[in-house]
Amino acid sequence: MNKNNFFTDALLVNICEDRIELGRLSAKAVCEKINDLFETKKEINILFAAAPSQNEFLEALIACKDIAWQRINAFHMDEYIGLDYNAPQRFGNFLKERIFGSLPFKSVNYIEGNNIELEQECQRYSILLKKYPIDIACIGIGENGHLAFNDPKVADFHDDKIVKIVALEERSREQQVNDGCFSNISQVPRKALTLTIPAIMAAKFIVCMAPGLTKAEAVRNMLVGGISETCPASVLRLHEAANLYIDQNSSKLLIRG
């Protein structure tokens, strides 16, 4: 271990030089874990996040060689409610463009945010996740420390649901504008479907990517102080096989010896 590679509780923190290195190293870790799992499993299940913070990781992951993608079932973490089916901001569309449409997965399982019966959609996706338990979760964190769309006001470390309907905090909606996904906040949906925190934490292996200055406050809050729903991402410190990848910008508020 060194100052760029250290543990905070059980969470392994990796400080990278920039977003490119972050993407390369996090993708390398995921590819290695995929091949490790294939030694004992015929197929595995991977959960993906849809956000600009994942771009370098997804690009590097697609470039990984000798991966039997046809033995992998793909899932995603959350989805807006009510966006047009063809809207590029829909998380399913984001991931289809960047990875789902580029690799021969055994299956790609989309959350349907436009289902008229949203509670039924939560139940449908929950049943899928029970049938295909997540082996690897590839995730990010929000500017307010959220995991998926578990904002501080709705985050529950002991949630009894797997997928639920949530109202989005204003800061989460503002982040979508800051990320360039929407031109103004009036366009950002107010509700979404999201995997809960226990559903994410149930993954056997978690790789979290959080680059950029806009994530510096959240990174500090998740690593310094208590483990609490006030910063949902802090729960990753309790996972026995979780890795956090940050860059020089997102680590800016950390005190390093």
> Which CATH class of the domain at 29-51 and 64-206 and 218-226?
Alpha Beta
Major sheet strand order? 1-2-11-10-7-3-4-6
Helix fraction bin: 25-40%
- Could you say which overall geometry the principal axes of the C-alpha atoms support? globular
- What oligomeric state best describes the polypeptide chains here? single chain
Give a brief outline of the structure.
This protein is α/β, with parallel strands linked by helices.
Could you explain the architecture of this structure?
The chain is an alpha/beta fold and 257 residues long. The protein has a domain at 29-51 and 64-206 and 218-226: Rossmann fold (3-Layer(aba) Sandwich). Helices cover 29% and strands 19% of the residues. The chain contains seven helices and eleven strands. The protein has helices spanning 19-38, 55-62, 91-100, 118-131, 170-178, 197-201, 216-223; strands at residues 5-8, 11-15, 44-48, 72-76, 78-80, 107-109, 136-139, 163-167, 191-195, 205-210, 242-246. The chain has an eight-stranded mixed sheet, with helices on one face. Helix 2 links the parallel strand 3 and strand 4. Helix 1 packs across helix 2 (55-62). It is globular and about 50 Å long. The mean pLDDT is 96.
Keywords:
257 residues; alpha/beta; Rossmann fold; eight-stranded mixed beta sheet; three-stranded antiparallel beta sheet; 19% strand
Q: What's the topology here?
A:
Elements: E1 5-8, E2 11-15, H1 19-38, E3 44-48, H2 55-62, E4 72-76, E5 78-80, H3 91-100, E6 107-109, H4 118-131, E7 136-139, E8 163-167, H5 170-178, E9 191-195, H6 197-201, E10 205-210, H7 216-223, E11 242-246
Parallel strand pairs: 2-11, 3-4, 3-7, 4-6, 7-10, 10-11
Antiparallel strand pairs: 1-2, 5-9, 8-9
